[in-house]
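Tokens in:
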């Protein structure tokens, strides 16, 4: 008898998991409470996978031997509660992918901020260095779909805390933890410790042959690292101390030492600018050195990398006013990093769905650098309360076009308009990509 696998959720990770499970001989049924995108519906039909949308058939789901839950579905939904109450094992898509990846190995990257950039840069270095690698996880193809359709020797995988919550045997030979700041607390009973524990799960199944690359300057990682049993080789990266192994930046010079490889490089040669990107570059450089990529190749790749769309992406300069799209900044810390790298007077576009934001974190930077705030969201009261004492110019807008016009109105030659919302986008947009694209279109229409 083949094992009955129910897939809950029909987005990229759900459909990828369904395709892999079917290929591996499971009896697969996918259930989505909403409507499937046309491309995903076609994928399921083409692979002969049974599915439902617009609701869940409880009896059928509770007949599963195992459930793969998409990361976007919270544990507190009635369907997930019923599955757990019945004792049916729940796994995440990366767990399923890992189970069937054969000899492939994983570079897993997690953290509250910087993980997409670090993942993309690590992948860029690996490919430039000749590694047979795929870019998977939150950033592109689902890990499961890649394993099903085009297996590789290495998977450079961006992993969210939600994906780590339902792993059992999943193991990253190389794990990167960029930093931990308060985010998604609505999913963790508003307990920061629960979210911290979730991030450290990336080390859970690592062995003495593996590597754990982490930011030694991050106050939360520093405070909590000793509470977790970590068996892998630590490779910290830092700008604040001298270390024997790992990565450090001192006097404008990056030094990487993994034991087998040593690399030196000037930070002025980095393609990515800003202090936060120096941390991301160290992490990616260390990871690449541990998989045996030659230092010349690492150096070349760090110099030639192009920034991601929606992450501090230069859009255009209109009448001396520069526009930057940082729509991927969906929490306050991401916006802190964006503001920290601003060198000109800034008009900041903020707002959206607040995930329990503490705006006091960016108050000093706002006072120092921001001359006007344009709110882009349905409910902007919290932003007004946070900054009304510090920023004389504040206005509410309800579309990307309105926000861009208002910001341009406040700006003078030599200013920067920065879209770095510190919030999720679901009140006015489909997702942060949609928000970023609408922003770019509005800038081009000025």
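Residues out:
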């Amino acid at each position: 008898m083949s094992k009955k696998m129910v897939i809950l959720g029909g987005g990229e990770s759900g459909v990828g998991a369904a395709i892999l499970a079917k290929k591996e001989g499971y009896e697969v049924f996918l259930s989505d409470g909403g409507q499937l995108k046309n491309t995903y519906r076609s994928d399921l039909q083409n692979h002969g996978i049974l599915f439902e949308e617009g609701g869940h058939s409880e009896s059928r789901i509770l007949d599963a031997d195992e459930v793969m839950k998409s990361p976007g579905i919270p544990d507190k939904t009635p369907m997930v509660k019923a599955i757990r109450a019945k004792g049916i094992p729940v796994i995440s898509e990366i767990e399923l992918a890992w189970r069937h990846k054969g000899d492939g190995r994983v570079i897993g990257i997690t953290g509250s901020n910087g993980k997409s950039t670090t993942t993309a840069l690590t992948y860029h270095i690996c490919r430039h260095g000749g590694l047979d690698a795929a870019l998977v996880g939150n950033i592109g193809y689902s890990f499961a779909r890649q394993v099903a359709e085009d297996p590789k020797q290495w998977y450079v995988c961006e992993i969210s805390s939600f994906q780590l919550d339902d792993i059992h045997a999943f193991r990253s030979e190389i794990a990167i933890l960029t930093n931990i700041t308060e985010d998604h607390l609505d999913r963790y009973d508003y307990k920061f410790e629960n979210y911290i524990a979730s991030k450290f799960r990336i080390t859970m199944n690592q062995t003495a042959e593996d590597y754990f690359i982490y930011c030694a300057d991050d106050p939360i990682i520093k405070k909590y690292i000793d509470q977790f049993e970590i068996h892998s080789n630590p490779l910290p990266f830092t700008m604040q101390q001298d270390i024997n192994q790992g990565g450090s930046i001192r006097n404008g010079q990056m030094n990487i030492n993994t034991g087998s490889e040593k690399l030196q490089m000037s930070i002025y040669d980095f393609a990515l600018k800003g202090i936060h990107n120096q941390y991301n570059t160290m992490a990616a450089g260390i990871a690449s050195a541990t998989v045996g990529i030659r230092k010349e190749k690492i150096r070349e790749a760090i110099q030639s990398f192009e920034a991601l769309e929606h992450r501090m992406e230069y859009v255009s300069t209109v009448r001396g006013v520069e526009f930057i799209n940082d729509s991927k900044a969906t929490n306050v810390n991401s916006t802190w990093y964006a503001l920290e790298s601003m060198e000109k007077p800034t008009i900041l576009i903020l707002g959206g769905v607040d995930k329990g934001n503490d705006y006091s974190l960016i108050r000093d930077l706002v006072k120092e650098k921001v001359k006007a705030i344009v709110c882009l969201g349905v409910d902007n009261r919290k932003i007004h309360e946070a900054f009304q004492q510090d920023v004389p110019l504040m206005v509410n807008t309800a579309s990307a076009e309105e926000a861009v016009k208002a910001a341009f109105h406040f700006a003078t030659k030599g200013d920067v308009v920065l879209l770095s919302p510190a919030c999720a986008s679901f009140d006015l947009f489909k997702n942060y990509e949609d928000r970023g694209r609408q922003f770019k279109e509005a800038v081009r229409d000025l």
